[in-house]
Amino acid sequence: MPAASHHMRRALRLARLGTGRTGPNPMVGAVVVRDGAVVGSGYHVYSQLWHAERVALDSAGPAARGADLYVTLEPCCHHGRTPPCTDAILAAGIRRVFCGMVDSNPLVAGGGIERLRRAGIDVIVADNPEPFRSINCGFISRVTRGRPWVTLKAAATLDGRIAPLSGRSRWISGEQSRRHAHWLRFRHDAILTGIGTVLADNPLLTCRHKRPREQPPLRLVIDPTLRLPPESRLTATAAEAPVWVFCGPSAPPAARDALAARGVTVVPITTADDGGLELAAALRRLADVGVSSVLVEGGSRTLAGFIRAGLADEFCFYFAPIILGERALPLAGDLGVLELDGCPRLDIRRVRPLPPDWLFEGFFGVPPGGPPPALPIR
């Protein structure tokens, strides 16, 4: 059905316009087609309230009656901030609905399709949901696994070193890589680093991208004993963009109070067996407040912690044409692996030049629900 494929691709392009602007909701695009012509279209932006279907139907007006609706995700059938999209579709007189994938949200999970079919509307679901899953990995992860999608990002030398022993890593990567890294920040709900990186680099972890976000990404620090300096740039800007610090239950109360007084949210979580923090608990706390995706920009120990715990989903590694040698910090710290047959295997999906660097992108293992999705277009 070439025409249907064309209109679904258009809806997918519209959905991507919501990148960084829909959380905690998924990115969705919709197109209304009558007699082969597009009469309405729209995509979801959280601050503008209405879902993509309602935006497209309002755009089409009376022309929606008897038309077809193409939407990247199953229309919702429950009351949230807005009434169900299925009600709007029925009221508009839509004839057929083409949707990219069944919604993974347990509140929908096929219910929207069933509601429309019971009302006599023909609903056709795409044979290949992968392009539609790929733009909403975070949302799907949060509603099915109870944790955000985690992307590990690092800039390394060709021999896999991320910094000299001093810990200062500015700048291993080139300008093009750094611009791309800000795009990664733009499309994630939160940016996480470890206290070691904060003490070495004093980063801001802000998103400097040409397109505006609805709200700045949540900035996160793994800091078991609360060593984050009150005069750090993160602390100093906590009133402008939120900062959370995950600490252990025995972190000094005076340090908690000092950070809280500067606007930092201190989140005590359980301690892991290795003496670090229980990263899975941190991710669950983030999911509870609607965070769907986390970009981890930490040092060797932080990256290794997520890999070792099986909590890393995707990776973006920039390799620069320089060599540091053994007196430098490795890309990943101790993974508890002693032999090759026990080491993590990566699914490299894309390698491309960002002169003078090379970017490697792909996945860790296979997430629940099937094979890893296609990489998002960046």
Would you tell me which CATH topology of the largest domain applies? Answer: Dihydrofolate Reductase, subunit A
Secondary-structure element string = HEEHEHEHEHHEEHEHEHEHEHEHEEEE
Strand order of the largest sheet: 11-10-9-8-12-6-13-16-15
Helix tally? 12
What share of the residues lie within helices? Answer: 25-40%
Question: Distance between the terminal alpha carbons, to the nearest Å?
Answer: 28 Å
Largest sheet: 9 strands, mixed
Name of the CATH architecture of the largest domain = 3-Layer(aba) Sandwich
What's the quaternary structure here?
A: single chain
Q: Which class of secondary structure composition applies to the elements?
A: alpha/beta
- Level-1 CATH class name of the largest domain: Alpha Beta
Topology (SSEs and partners):
Elements: H1 2-16, E1 29-34, E2 37-43, H2 52-60, E3 68-71, H3 85-92, E4 96-99, H4 111-118, E5 122-125, H5 130-134, H6 137-145, E6 149-157, E7 161-164, H7 175-187, E8 190-194, H8 195-201, E9 218-222, H9 233-236, E10 243-247, H10 253-261, E11 265-268, H11 279-288, E12 293-296, H12 300-308, E13 314-320, E14 328-330, E15 346-354, E16 357-364
Parallel strand pairs: 3-4, 4-5, 6-12, 6-13, 8-9, 8-12, 9-10, 10-11
Antiparallel strand pairs: 1-2, 1-3, 7-14, 13-16, 15-16
